[in-house]
Amino acid sequence: MNGLNINGWQLLKLIYVLRSVGITITIDQVQDALKALTLFPDLSPQLVLKSLFIHRPEDHQLYDMVYDLLASTESSSPDSEHTAPGQCTGPDQGNTGDGSHQGIGTGQGGITLILKSSRESSQSSATSFQMPDLHYLMGLKGFPGTIEEEETQEFDFEKQVKFILGQSGFLTWSNSLELAKNRGEVSEDQWQTFEAYQDFWNRQIRQVLWQERLQSQNRWDILREVNWRFKPLNSFTADEEGMVHQALRQMGNRLAVHRGLSKKKASRGTLRVSSLLKEMVRGNGSVFRFEYETYVLKHPELIVLCDVSNSVAPFSQFLLYLCQRIKSRFRKVRLYLFIDGIWDITCEEWLITGDSMAEIRSWGRKHSSGFTDYGKVFKDFAQNVLPALSTKGTVLIMGDGRNNFRPAQAEYLQEIQEKVKHIFWLNPLEEKDWSLPDNLMKEYRRYCTQVFPCRNLSDLWQISKKVFS
């Protein structure tokens, strides 16, 4: 598609793939796209469709990736259509009249990066690196082509990228170049060229890996792993967490539009129209008494229990953040952390800030052995917290159910279930892992109103609408 005119079939395929990866495209948007492509044939189809289909900055990279992958399926040589920053047609064309060109020249088996200063006149004195053929590197012994047990596909994918960069010698070369920059031997312009080259090859390697995976599995929905809505919450980098918090704030705002209010009879407040009409019918037009009503929150109490052991802490962080955004929907909110003990954090000041991960981990280090014990936690909760809870309260548990082969003590969860209105359990593990030998979900779920998989933002949004609406 890159460099080709989009026909009807290619447009339909693009729409199908974008929907498969989790981007919503409406019929109205498709109609607008057809009109725009007809009215503006000189504009880049990629940019025209991007402006119509993509409405969040976070989706730009995913769209470009899908577009390039579709373009590669239309070409017999996937790598040939992509040009690195400053690429030239041959090694000797890196020189210009003033000898100051910094670019990338093609070399045998790959592409060579050439960094030259204005004082350098020959390629032999330039700092250069040649990237070998990517498919050759993927065929080397030791390439992580299979997913190891208990590892996610995303982690395995990153291992493949690191393997290719390591085997090509790129990591060694980039480290030596960084040392040269620290010694003042590499100029700022040269370093910027290197960074552009590094970014280019990171994208190229991922694209080739995705091409291989798409060809082997023949399904586009696997690209949902790249969509930030479907990425596991524990896979976001520190830089990406700001994007997640922004999405959670928007979730909270949408949930807070309807505050979950219910009407209740009162001695003063708003006049009850239904009672007024009944009085007029009974009194033949005369009204002898007035009834009033007032609004109250229909959700009396929310109690949140978050496992903060290493495997679950990133998921708990985002749940706590969302609960802080929607606490106005409840008359009372209580927040607790646990590993092998339970700690009340309802009044902690750090909860109102986005950077809570360090605090969450510090509580686990200070107050526990580090090994989860759900049985002990439910026992402590039933004995010390449960007596003060409302019978109409909702308990929300974030945990993976892995108990390190300790006693389940499910009778205490049953005691909690008999006292409160609802228990909702959010589990960050895939459902197939709920039946592992050290996992107690099969015993605990019988005392829960509902158990939800909760691995990503899409799951959390669907859960929020069911639990908090």
Automatic annotation (TrEMBL):
Pfam families: VWA_CoxE. Residues 74-103 are annotated as: Disordered. This is Protein containing von Willebrand factor type A (VWA) domain. It comes from the Bacteria. InterPro entries: Uncharacterised_CoxE (IPR008912).
